[in-house]
Automatic annotation (TrEMBL):
Transmembrane segments: none annotated. This is Dienelactone hydrolase domain-containing protein. Pfam families: Abhydrolase_7 (PF12715).
Length: 316
């Protein structure tokens, strides 16, 4: 937390309003606005199952890739949007999520689902499309103001859990988080910084700094990497060490043998580090690590196993 520096003050009041809704099979989709912090009032999608609550809930954290015009729309099928945004969202669901909106999939299985835009994406961006250069400018300006882009994203995610826990439809003792790619990084970071998250699943983002800092990996090229950097933290902890702060919570990590972004040796080394921590706390059964014969992709079989994981730990 010391490395994060100058984080936003918590919201004095959420002042949530519902600006739109749509009935779907077994649940309702709502477009909402609320005060995420004293610095930001944000739009979000909230999915609420039919029936009597309170329900378990999942904070769905979107990935990084452009177009930046979509963020939360990658996780939850949007409504009331332009044809261009709808097309971008559908294309992305096909490209990364096997044609399935993960948030809708979980809502249909009895979970309240919340998804916000990270700063720079969707309705919290400038519709940059595929302009990656703007990331560097944003990160530079934030660093000069005494904070960092990565820290703001993490704290926004933590504040979204605080908000979610206040909703009458939600059982605040059964909140989990799930993300793919950058969303996976956000998920294990979120579980590390707040006790409100009781279980987490991270798909296709875990490794070691030694394995990622190579001439061909994206992590040392600036730009996108700034969204997942907390300045100074590497003096103390590597990625698997930060993720292990969440121990002994139930936590799932999936990676792929064909994922060019995350070398398998680094994945195995990170898994070994985390396994030692969970073992030390007598919580070995609560850590799931698996390397699939897959590229950087969250296929439907992986989504089903992730749902089964949350059902085990959040639907007891």
């Amino acid at each position: 937390m010391e490395c994060m520096e100058n984080i936003p003050p918590t919201a004095k009041a959420y002042n949530m309003v519902v600006v739109g809704s749509e009935k779907r099979k077994g649940y309702e989709a709502r477009k909402i606005l609320f005060n995420l912090s004293e610095w930001s009032r944000v739009p979000a999608y909230l999915l609420v199952p039919e029936g009597k609550g309170p329900f378990p809930a999942i904070v769905m954290l979107h990935d990084h890739g452009a177009p930046f015009s979509i963020g939360k729309e990658k996780m939850i099928r949007p409504f009331g949007v332009s044809a261009e945004v709808m097309a971008d969202a559908d294309d992305w669901a096909q490209k990364c999520y096997d044609g399935q909106y993960t948030g809708d999939y979980f809502a249909a299985h009895g979970y309240v689902v919340l998804s916000i835009d990270a700063l720079y994406w969707g309705e919290r961006g400038r519709k940059e499309g595929v302009n990656y250069e703007g990331q560097q400018a944003l990160a530079s300006n934030l660093l000069q103001m005494g904070t960092s882009w990565g820290a703001l994203i993490t704290m926004d995610d933590a504040y979204s859990v605080d908000f979610l826990s206040t909703l009458p439809e939600v059982d605040s003792e059964r909140i989990g988080t799930l993300g793919f790619s950058m969303g996976a990084y956000r998920a294990w970071m979120l579980s590390a910084v707040t006790d409100r998250v009781k279980a987490a699943a991270a798909i296709c983002w875990m490794n070691t700094t030694d394995s990622l800092m190579t001439l061909t990996n994206n992590q040392n090229k600036g730009g996108s990497a700034y969204s997942m950097i907390i300045p100074g933290i590497r003096r103390y902890l590597d990625y698997p060490h930060v993720a292990s702060i969440a121990c002994p919570k139930p936590t799932l990590f999936f990676n792929g043998t064909k994922d060019k972004l995350f070398p398998v040796q680094g994945v195995e080394d990170a898994y070994k580090t985390m396994r030692a921590v969970w073992n030390s706390q007598g919580a070995d059964e609560k850590l799931v690590t698996k390397i699939w014969d897959e590229k950087h992709f969250f296929n439907r079989a992986m989504q089903q196993e992730t749902l089964d994981f949350f059902d085990r730990w959040l639907k007891k």
